[in-house]
Write a structure and sequence with these properties.
The protein is α/β, with parallel strands linked by helices. The protein is built from seven helices and eight strands. A six-stranded parallel β-sheet has the order 4-3-2-5-6-7, sandwiched between helices. InterPro entries: Isochorismatase-like_dom, Isochorismatase-like_hydrls, Isochorismatase-like_sf.
């Protein structure tokens, strides 16, 4: 698959210490396992000037105090609190000065963030999506991208999950409903 760097962004979803480091409160070995293939992907993308975007799932401690129904702390416990080590991107995936970082407070990187406007202002149409967790933030961000008429391309070998079945479900769902699923080796930025 050949992608034009000027029209493309690589979206790295939530590759944070809280999810990818063994000391993280929501550590999943499957998330740590995709650090290396994502690093390789970013190197290839940056060599061609393809935009890189990192999302960070960040929660103020009081975010869900007045929640009626949506309460991630009830579901997962307190995690990636604002200003914490857990909320930082893993050291193995350093953020470059040219990269864009989106802080989000839900599973969806488009919900109540500047991401859609930022992409539209740069005429970016194709989103190469990787990161973690497959059936949570990656799936919701990819689906939301498709609903906004971006082309979501989910990278099967660069998406972390708690269980392999979660990744398989998310990728099958994406391919069936809103996007494309490819191995990272099949991508060419040119």
């Amino acid at each position: 698959m050949r992608l034009e760097p000027a029209d493309t962004a690589v979206v790295v979803v939530d590759m944070q210490n809280g999810f990818c480091h063994p000391d993280g409160s929501l550590y999943a070995p499957g998330s740590e396992a995709v650090i290396e293939p994502i690093a390789d992907l970013l190197e290839r993308a940056r060599e061609t000037g393809t935009q890189v975007i990192f999302t960070r799932d960040v929660h103020p401690p009081e975010q869900f105090d007045d929640a009626h129904y949506y309460d991630e702390f009830e579901q997962w416990g307190e995690h990636v609190l604002e200003g914490s080590w857990e909320a930082e991107i893993v050291d193995e995936l350093p953020v470059d000065a040219a990269d864009h970082v989106v802080e989000k407070h839900t599973y969806d990187a488009f919900y109540n963030t500047e991401l859609e406007g930022w992409l539209n202002a740069r005429n970016i149409d194709d989103l190469v999506i990787c990161g973690t967790l497959a059936n949570v933030c990656v799936l919701h961000t990819g689906g939301s991208a498709g609903l906004r008429d971006f082309r979501p391309i989910m990278l099967e070998d660069c998406i972390g999950a708690i269980e392999d079945g979660h990744r398989e479900y998310a990728l099958d769902h994406a391919a069936w409903l809103f996007g494309e699923v490819e191995p990272s080796d099949d991508l060419e930025f040119a």
